[in-house]
Request: fold
Amino acid sequence: MGSLFEELEAREAAARVRVEELEAELAELSGKLELAREALERLRIARETVAEVLAEMTPEGSAVAVGVGQPTAGERVASAYAGAERQVIGVLTVPNWQPGMAPEVLRR
Reply:
């Protein structure tokens, strides 16, 4: 059996190794966290940009509501692109899916 000081030194060395391993894990996780934060920020910016573009494209300046205020076929509509005019060829609205919904709800 070794001395008490040898046992304490062995435990200290093991604890030092464990601390170094955890510090390496922490550094790796910190890098992954930073990458995840950057991806989250890019997605937030993309969502906000799409919302702005859609708001600019609608005549009211707000998001498009499905089936409400939609132009009818053949109607001419002002475009947000350099004063161009576009013609609506046809509009088909599809209801949002809900549990139990049968395929018959889709128009043919």
